[in-house]
Specification:
By secondary structure, this protein is an all-alpha fold. It is built from 2 helices and no strands.
Length: 106
């Protein structure tokens, strides 16, 4: 019967630490709420300034991603163009080599 007692103590200690943690969160919330009610213009300016920064950051991030996507598409097109030119030039070199071999035979 000695083993259930430490478990109960652990449970009580855990629940008491949770209660203390929750209580500190509630106290902090009340302080912030009182401060926001006391100084509404300060909090409003924080929201405007940091909200503006957030919107600007989101806009720039999205623009960067779009630019990267366009660059990837253009790189793909360029890669295909280079491949077609290389295949065409190798084919023309093969044709020229065949023509020169035919001329040498004659």
């Amino acid at each position: 019967m000695a083993t259930p007692t430490p478990q109960k103590d652990d449970e009580q200690q855990a629940s008491s630490t949770l209660a203390v943690g929750w209580k500190t969160i509630e106290e902090r919330y009340q302080k912030i709420k009182e401060n926001a009610e006391t100084y509404p213009y300060v909090w409003g300016s924080y929201i405007v300034v940091y909200g503006g920064f957030g919107l600007w950051f989101a806009y720039r991030w999205r623009k960067l991603r779009r630019t990267e996507d366009r660059v990837r598409v253009l790189q793909g097109r360029l890669r295909k163009l280079v491949e077609t030119q290389e295949s065409a030039s190798s084919a023309s070199k093969a044709d020229k080599a065949a023509l020169s071999a035919d001329k040498n035979r004659k």
